[in-house]
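For practice. Supply one:
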Amino acid sequence: MTIAVSVLLGIIATYIVILLGYYLFQEKLIFIPVHRKDKREIQLVRTFKEMYFETANEGSIHGILIETRLEEVRGLIFYLHGNTGAMQRWAHMGQELSEFGFDVFIMDYRGYGKSIGPRRESWMRSDCSEVYRELINEVGENYKKIVVYGRSLGSGFAIPLAADVQPDKLVLETPFKSLLSVAKHHTKFLPLKFLLRYYMRSDLIIHRIACPVIIFHGTKDKIVPFSSAFELFQGVPVDDQNRFVSIPDGKHNNLSTYPAFRDNLRSFLLE
């Protein structure tokens, strides 16, 4: 066997190992991280209620309902968070949103914090729908307005949920047109169409949204390309109330620090 053949076989073997590793461990790249420390007790300034929901396919979902400090509650925000951390982190984001006069409900996905259950995209989407419907059946009569809010990974669950339940408004922060497109952006040398088990094709669902939509995205987002969010917005049904808010120099995790983000979010929620 020549040296060239040996090198070629070595390259092929390495590539196969990479393919196998990506297929087997992709969840560790998508869902980050799940640590025992995420189960610490939640401490907030606002009053909140912990809730648990038993869902299909062995799911047990933990969520919290954070109360606004305002006497007159303007509505409820159903918040679907990003792929890192767990309730200990995202509860503080929800508390910030409650400043707009909305109660905020946040749920942890399977394997995050106190939520448990095996993962599949369809099962996680079903969790969001089941939890939403049970929550609205229990407390929905207290609210005049329901807003679904999807942050990054959460946009992949928020869009199909909103298409099914048709809330009053939909907020998408750093969303993508599909998780497949984001994966291809970061890993161009792998046949991801055949390896990825989580496609999250929001671009095939967004046209079914009937409520007003606002999308926020930073021009320097290195995790979800700006173009992915803008292409997603192209599929939103034409309506004068829909907005795409570009945040110059904004990155993936700092949009809330920009006045343009808070001002546009406030006006969208309150109008």
